[in-house]
């Protein structure tokens, strides 16, 4: 629970920090790289983490890294590049180049960060001492603190300024449900096909479909939504979809699949499914004239 909340906060913070006039790198790249770096570090130290306290490993990888990185947001970024959603003065060829750049750059950066995290873990592993497992009292205390941390997102939504709701506090409410959905899908479906992580694929595809739907609702041309509705949709997009989908687990699975054929099949199928989903949901309505390229929502 708390690491899902922290992952969303870190992603939104890094994205806001990296969004400025004249930026050289698209903002989402920073959270993808950071999440994959930490994921690689944790993967290389899985044995001592699991020996000390298994939930700590799950919290850092599934909770924090999975929430810090987002597959659905990456897919929507690519699709907006094909469409030239910013209406930049460029040709169709440059639209294609922009989409290809975001695809290749994110995969390359994420894999490089993953392997560099593993390298860092090997360097510090001789000095890493897991120590004895925590006792029952400490485990129960950690559980109570975790639940209270997530429960605190409810008063934070109401007590912090209204401007923060669509920016952060509303998204925190949906962070853990998204992470839990992804965890359950992976836990039950991944063992079914060892050469194709079906659970992660389902989570990334379903989350991308939801994000496309929420983006459509935020971009209606004739019937703009209320400010409260826009805030909830943005919260679902950043919180639930952002935590439901993951790039860190996706590239970690690419790295550990046994054959090159399995890697390419899984990677291309997952990426292609995301783009096809957005064409069917967002593209069809946009080209039909029912929605706008940019969001028409006006937040409270």
Automatic annotation (TrEMBL):
<dbReference type="InterPro" id="IPR003691">
    <property type="entry name" value="FluC"/>
</dbReference>
<comment type="function">
    <text>Fluoride channel required for the rapid expulsion of cytoplasmic fluoride.</text>
</comment>
<keyword id="KW-1133">Transmembrane helix</keyword>
<dbReference type="GO" id="GO:1903425">
    <property type="term" value="F:fluoride transmembrane transporter activity"/>
</dbReference>
<dbReference type="GO" id="GO:0005886">
    <property type="term" value="C:plasma membrane"/>
</dbReference>
<feature type="transmembrane region" description="Helical">
    <location>
        <begin position="137"/>
        <end position="160"/>
    </location>
</feature>
<feature type="transmembrane region" description="Helical">
    <location>
        <begin position="166"/>
        <end position="185"/>
    </location>
</feature>
<keyword id="KW-1003">Cell membrane</keyword>
<feature type="transmembrane region" description="Helical">
    <location>
        <begin position="237"/>
        <end position="256"/>
    </location>
</feature>
<feature type="transmembrane region" description="Helical">
    <location>
        <begin position="28"/>
        <end position="45"/>
    </location>
</feature>
<protein>
    <submittedName>
        <fullName>Uncharacterized protein</fullName>
    </submittedName>
</protein>
<keyword id="KW-0812">Transmembrane</keyword>
<comment type="similarity">
    <text>Belongs to the fluoride channel Fluc/FEX (TC 1.A.43) family.</text>
</comment>
<feature type="transmembrane region" description="Helical">
    <location>
        <begin position="192"/>
        <end position="217"/>
    </location>
</feature>
<keyword id="KW-0472">Membrane</keyword>
<dbReference type="Pfam" id="PF02537">
    <property type="entry name" value="CRCB"/>
</dbReference>
<feature type="transmembrane region" description="Helical">
    <location>
        <begin position="268"/>
        <end position="288"/>
    </location>
</feature>
<feature type="transmembrane region" description="Helical">
    <location>
        <begin position="57"/>
        <end position="76"/>
    </location>
</feature>
């Amino acid at each position: 629970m708390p690491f899902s909340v922290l992952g969303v906060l870190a992603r939104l913070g890094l994205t806001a920090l990296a969004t400025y006039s004249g930026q050289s790198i698209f903002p989402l790249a920073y959270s993808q790289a950071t999440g994959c770096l930490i994921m690689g570090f944790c993967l290389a130290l899985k044995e001592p983490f699991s020996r000390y306290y298994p939930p700590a490993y799950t919290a850092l990888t599934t909770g924090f890294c999975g929430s810090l990185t987002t597959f659905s947001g990456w897919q929507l970024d690519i699709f907006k590049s094909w469409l030239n959603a910013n209406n930049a003065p460029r040709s169709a060829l440059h639209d294609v180049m922009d989409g290809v750049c975001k695809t290749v750059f994110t995969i390359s950066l994420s894999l490089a960060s993953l392997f560099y995290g593993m390298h860092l873990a090997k360097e510090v592993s001789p000095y890493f001492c897991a120590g004895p497992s925590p006792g029952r009292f400490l485990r129960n205390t950690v559980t109570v603190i975790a639940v209270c941390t997530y429960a605190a997102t409810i008063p934070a939504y109401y007590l912090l300024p209204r401007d923060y709701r669509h920016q952060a506090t509303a998204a925190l409410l949906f962070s853990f449900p998204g992470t839990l959905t992804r965890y359950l899908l992976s836990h039950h479906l991944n063992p079914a096909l060892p050469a194709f992580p079906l659970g992660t694929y389902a989570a990334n595809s379903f989350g991308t479909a939801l994000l496309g739907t929420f983006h459509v609702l935020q971009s209606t041309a004739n019937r703009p939504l209320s400010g409260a509705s826009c805030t909830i949709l943005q919260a679902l997009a950043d919180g639930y979809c952002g935590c439901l989908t993951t790039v860190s687990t996706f590239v970690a699975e690419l790295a550990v699949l046994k054959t090159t054929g399995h890697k390419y099949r899984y990677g291309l199928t997952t990426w292609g499914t995301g783009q096809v989903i957005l064409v069917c949901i967002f593209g069809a309505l946009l080209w039909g004239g029912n929605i706008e390229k940019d969001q028409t929502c006006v937040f409270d």
